[in-house]
């Protein structure tokens, strides 16, 4: 019995390790559009590659982050703006290098999921099971004036005038902002607006669905919101 219980223990340890490794992966999430993905309804018929929908090792469409998609027109979007904002809001248009625009190359509900892939695997155009565009709640359209502001520059002076925002840390890579409610700061991104732009990726973790839906931290007790806002 001694032997089998040791094997049992080894198996349990292995299972825990596999579960932990699996949890932090894009595999089989809704962002795994490969033909074998068990988590996605939108997926390919003819490629089991995962990264190719967004990245390529060579000849990328946008340098950073080796972006493999034809993005929609940056200026065709309307963003959130309000007179209450202390960091300058942007009403009209993304910058062409905005990570948020990259998200919209699928979440605008109009750009093809497989159709907009810039370099197809083995030169073969990707075809999808069913629709090539997103419909339903995950289709945010091009009017983002009713969505949390993105692609605007967060500045130390904007934070200080507001008085209820977390602190900016430009010493980390990437720079972050955080309140005392979170251990890890939430990332800010570089764009043509500056080095500390708030983007979709400040709240969302595109490769990891541990805190669904692809969030940087849990929404339990509104922890994510309280990570930047002192309310
Ligand atoms: C659905 C689109 C999408 C897919 C699929 C995807 N990525 Fe990404 N990836 C992004 C976006 C957007 C960024 C930049 C935003 C960010 O870092 O949050 C990024 C950033 C990165 C970065 C740089 C930042 C970091 O997190 O280290 C690496 C490396 C990366 N991806 C690797 C991969 C690999 C490897 C795969 C396949 C296993 C993959 N990605 C699949 C969208 C995607
Ligand atoms: C290659 C296309 C593609 C890109 C690029 C992409 N997504 Fe998605 N995303 C999808 C698809 C497809 C779904 C599933 C939609 C559905 O099933 O209704 C999805 C779902 C989601 C969901 C909802 C998940 C859920 O469980 O309901 C979130 C949140 C999300 N994406 C955020 C992002 C963010 C943020 C970015 C950019 C950093 C991004 N996505 C970039 C294709 C993409
Ligand atoms: C301030 C934080 C924040 C920012 C910025 C943000 N999101 Fe979200 N997003 C959330 C949270 C939180 C949820 C989950 C809401 C819920 O479950 O009630 C969510 C949900 C979603 C969903 C799922 C919607 C649904 O109803 O199924 C998608 C898709 C999505 N976000 C995409 C994006 C994209 C694309 C951007 C950038 C244009 C973005 N998000 C910017 C916090 C954010
Ligand atoms: C990564 C940091 C970050 C996170 C996370 C975040 N916010 Fe924000 N939010 C900001 C910043 C910065 C502003 C702009 C504030 C300003 O300039 O006055 C803002 C603006 C807003 C505004 C508009 C304020 C105005 O004056 O018009 C609202 C409302 C808001 N956030 C709610 C939320 C909610 C709800 C959540 C959680 C779902 C959330 N935020 C998560 C950083 C964040």
Describe this structure in words.
There is one protein chain. By secondary structure, this protein is α+β, with helices and mostly antiparallel strands. It is 20% helix and 10% strand. The protein contains five helices and eight strands; from the N terminus they run αβαββαβββββαα. The strands form three sheets. The protein has a three-stranded antiparallel β-sheet with strand order 3-8-7. A three-stranded antiparallel β-sheet has the order 4-5-6. A two-stranded parallel ribbon has the order 1-2. The longest helix is centred in the first third of the chain and has 22 residues, at 2-23. Residues 7-22 have low confidence and may be disordered. One heme C (HEC) is lined by residues 30-31, 41-42, 53-54, 99, 102-103, 105-107, 113, 134, 136, 138, 200-201, 204, 206, 212-214.
Strand order within the widest beta sheet: 3-8-7
Query: What does the average pLDDT come to?
Result: 92
Globular, elongated, flat, extended or rod-shaped: what is the shape? Answer: globular
- The CA-CA distance between the termini, in Å, is 57 Å
Q: Specify the structural class.
A: alpha+beta
What is the H-and-E element order?
A: HEHEEHEEEEEHH
- Tell me the count of domains: 1
The distinct ligands, each listed once, are: heme C
Portion of residues within helices: 10-25%
The largest pleated sheet is described as:
3 strands, antiparallel
Extended strand count: 8
